[in-house]
Structure formats: C-alpha cells, structure tokens
Write a structure and sequence with these properties.
single chain, 25% strand, nine-stranded mixed sheet, UDP-N-acetylmuramoyl-L-alanine:D-glutamate ligase, PfkB_dom, four-stranded mixed sheet, 311 residues, Carbohydrate kinase PfkB domain-containing protein
C-alpha cells in the first residue's frame, strides 16, 4: 500500500515517541460499571447467581474510551458529545481534565447521564469469553444535534482528524449531527475516520443507511464479518471484501478490516488501486481485550496521518 510499514511496529500500541496532530472524537460519553467473572460462564447459568469479582466504575463511552488511548499519540485530543445534568456530570468533566482531553461537551438540562454495565465471563475452549454490554437506551448522546455540532465547528476545523462511530447513526437526531460534523470536516480539510459499530450494525442498519458517512470518510475501521454480512457475503473470505467495498462507495478510503478468530488478531488494510497490506495486531491469549481496539485504532490513525504528512 501507499501507507508504509505497520502501525503495530511503529508507532506501536503503547503510544508514540513524539506526540503529533490533533484528534477530535465525536461519540458517546457515559458512566460504566465493568466486571469480569472468572468463575462464571454465561451458558452455565440456570438461575440467579451471586458472584464476587473485580468490579469498577469509570467514565467511558466510545468517545472517552478512544480519547483515553489517543492521548499517548496525539498532541491535542478533544471529545465532542452530549452529556446529562446530574451528579455524574462533574465527574465526567473532571476525568477529561485529568486525561488532558479538551472538553467540547454540551449538557442537556435536567437529563440523566447514561449508564452502562459490561460483564465478561470466564474464557473457555471456544474463545476468550463473552461480553454482555447493557447500555442505557435513553443516552443524551442520542440527542446530540446538528446545532450542537455547529457550535463546535471551530474545534472540528482545527483538528487533523475527526473520529466518528456508527452508534451515532442509530438515532435520527444524532445521525444528522454526525453527518453535519463530517461535512464540516471535509469542507475544512480535516480527515474523517469512521468506526463501523456496533458489531451487529448489519442487523440495525442497511448498507444504504451507512453509505452517506462512508462516502465522507477517509479511513473506515470495521470487523470484516460485520461488513461481509451487511454486503450479503456471509462467511466469505476477507479477500472477497475489497471489490465489494470498492463498489459500495466511490473514492479511495482506507479500509482497516479486523480479521481473525475474534476479529482482532489481524488487519487487512485496503485502498482502491493500492496493493493490500496485512499485519498482525499482537492480540491473543493473555492480552487484555478491553481497550485493545482503541489502542489499535489510535496507533493506526497516527500511522496514517504520519504517512500523509511525509508525502
């Protein structure tokens, strides 16, 4: 490919030697409870169960999760989103300050902040364990408006890359906000990166519903099986995806396709007209899954921007 090397080798997954560029992340911001259940398999549960296990509460959501990892690569990192107006709001803003992330959040008066619960069960012979994520459905992020985005337009224009994700497409209000942000970025010369999530988005949206944001994106990140299902390719091999992706949208976005047994072990990087690039991510037994995808995405964005800056 025109993009050289591998982001896993350089800059690597532990941050860059020299922080550069500006990243603005638009997405979900919430309070999350996380627990791993080392003695429990979800499939074994036949009744109520009390489990004592490590549990923690943290400020999370797609935007914060990526921003937390991105600060090791980017000189400037900002989060744009909508939060509630309750006792958690100062906690959220304080965490962004602690991380060194610019706060472009807007608060919805009288609204509660969203809360989610993430449980992961015991690994088994069939894989690293399963994740159960229960997300509060009335999250303020679903009501992020185009007007909210336009008020933050200067921040979008100052960024080198705007990062969006598919959760914003699941509400008509936030969908308009997402497309507005992408349009502002394109008009200002800010690159647009889009993460195709949730991983079952093919059961929630059609390829036609995704196409408007894909057509505005410079970089698209997705699990390969998600796009294969959405394009009606079922269990096709990864090598069958690039021609279908080229047919889906015009232009030459860089597709970073997550592949492997858990869709995290390898990446197939494809861009129309370039030779494909494949690299191992380093994910495997003994590597913590939580946050790994965000580490990888941050490294890839820095790698891609560095290549463009050098060209």
């Amino acid at each position: 490919m025109a993009v050289p090397g591998s982001p896993v080798r350089r800059p690597g997954l532990d941050g860059a030697a020299v922080r550069r560029f500006g990243l603005l992340v638009l997405g979900d911001v919430r309070i999350e409870v996380r627990a791993e259940l080392p003695g429990v398999r979800f499939t074994e549960l036949t009744g109520d169960r009390l489990a004592y296990a490590p549990a923690r509460v943290l400020v999370a959501g797609t935007a914060v999760n990526l921003a937390r990892r991105a600060t090791g690569y980017f000189r400037r990192t900002a989060v744009l989103g909508k939060i509630g107006d309750d006792d958690f709001s100062p906690v959220i803003r304080r965490e962004l300050r602690r991380l060194g992330v610019a706060d472009l959040l807007c608060a919805e008066p009288g609204a509660a902040n969203a809360v989610s619960v993430m449980l992961r069960d015991r690994p088994g012979a069939d894989g690293p364990g399963r994740r159960l994520l229960v997300a509060g459905e009335h999250a303020p992020s679903r009501r992020l408006s185009a007007a909210d985005v336009r008020r933050a337009a200067d921040g979008i224009r100052r960024a080198d890359v705007l990062f969006l994700d598919g959760y914003g497409l699941l509400s008509p209000v936030s969908r308009e906000a997402l497309l507005t942000a992408a349009g502002i970025a394109r008009g200002a010369g800010t690159a647009v990166a889009f993460d195709v999530v949730p991983h079952d988005v093919d059961a929630r949206l059609t390829a036609a519903a995704l196409r408007p944001v894909l057509e505005l994106a410079d970089v698209v990140i997705s699990e390969a099986p998600t796009l294969a299902r959405m394009l009606g390719l079922g269990g096709a091999r990864e090598c069958a995806l690039p021609p279908a992706l080229d047919a889906l949208v015009p232009g030459r976005p860089l597709w970073l396709l997550r592949c492997g047994p858990t869709s995290l072990e390898r990446v197939l990087a494809h861009r129309r007209g370039d030779a494909p690039l494949e690299y191992a991510t380093g994910f495997g037994p003994g590597v913590e899954r939580a946050g790994f995808g965000d580490r990888l995405a941050a490294a890839e964005l820095y790698w891609w921007l560095s290549a463009h800056a050098a060209s």
